[in-house]
Amino acid sequence: MKKRILVLTDGNIDNASARIRAIQYIPFFEAQGYKVAHIPRVPQRPAGLISKYTVFPVLKRWYSLKMGFSLLFRKWDVVFIQRIFISKYLLKLLNKKSIPIIYDFDDAIYINARRPSDQEKTAIMIRNSTKVIVSTDYLSKFCRDNGQNPALIPSPVETDRIRPTEKQQNQTVTIGWIGSPWTSGFLDLIEKPLMRLAEKYTFRFLTIGAKPEYRIQGINHIAKSWVFEDENDVLGQMDIGLMPLPITEFAKMKGGYKLLQYMSAGLPCIASPVGINQTIVKPGENGYLASSEDEWFEVLEKLLLDPALRLRMGANGRKEALELYSREVCFGKLLKIIREL
């Protein structure tokens, strides 16, 4: 009989963590002969207001009931939980049935000023799991403090979907950033360097997924909404990819996924030397690290003026994305853990 895996995620296909670290693995599991059932906590975000207040809450309730029923009454060989919190009662029940639990998370979900109880909820998930997987070693201490030595699997990038795009010669250089409305607040760190750069040079600044109202005065700024189907095409419009981060405990725990996207797209990266960024970015090889306003300006200027350097660094990044961070590589690590269980 086929091994049965239940995959539980906090978000749906339109949620980055759920899609990248769980849902996109499902075809890989099936290709290995596993039978997979996936239950998200919520449906996809509705397009209109009517669906938001009618269909969405009904489906959300249905998913909750389906999740509880599946944990209570179905038999599984493995339960893979990505980021979501499950009740202690259900975790204990799975343990009593000797069903292995894998808990995966990729951010400091235990640091939440609005929901301080998330710290204890995360700890409960860790203590009651058979194996814990994290995206960066910076998350390991909290796991060890709660009795688990976690496995490290970076957030995989779809190197087959996000690929280098041939650039036209003599086109205006595009400096870009991809993220979410919430993380667009980090762009404050690079506003002054970009404004200084615009006083001397012509370039475009492209943001994907930032707040709709976000703008920088005096910059040729193009804002695009994030759309899964358009992601590769829009990333292909960039020549340089940015990842500014503040020096906070939460930021130190982030998985650096946007850097992996830039690298997969063959783009040189510039990032703040915070957390895993210091491991992913190899200064002078696939990009640069920048702390101060002057450092950001200097490396932006260097890449802006040197297309050959951009091309070389982008090629190095693409090679590393394939060898270290592709879905195939990361799934191999996950599959090994599951088979050992």
How would you describe this structure in keywords?
alpha/beta, Rossmann fold, 6-stranded parallel β-sheet, globular, single chain, 12 strands, 15 helices, 341 residues
Task: Write a short abstract of this structure.
Helix content is 40%, strand content 15%.
The helix-strand sequence is EHHEHHEHEHEHEEHEEHEHHEHEHHH
CATH class of the largest domain: Alpha Beta
Rough shape? globular
Give the amount of beta strand, in percent.
Answer: 15-25%
Helix tally?
Answer: 15
Structural class: alpha/beta
Explain what the structure shows.
The chain has helices at residues 16-21, 26-31, 49-53, 55-73, 88-96, 118-127, 140-145, 191-200, 231-235, 249-252, 257-264, 277-280, 293-305, 307-324, 327-340, and strands at residues 4-9, 35-40, 78-82, 101-105, 131-134, 151-152, 174-178, 204-208, 221-224, 240-243, 269-271, 287-289. It has 341 residues and is an alpha/beta fold. The protein has two domains: 4-156 and 326-340, Glycogen Phosphorylase B (Rossmann fold), CATH 3.40.50; 174-324, Glycogen Phosphorylase B (Rossmann fold). It has a six-stranded parallel β-sheet with strand order 2-1-3-4-5-6. It has a six-stranded parallel β-sheet with strand order 9-8-7-10-11-12, with helices on both faces. The protein is globular and about 65 Å long. The two termini are 17 Å apart. The mean pLDDT is 94.
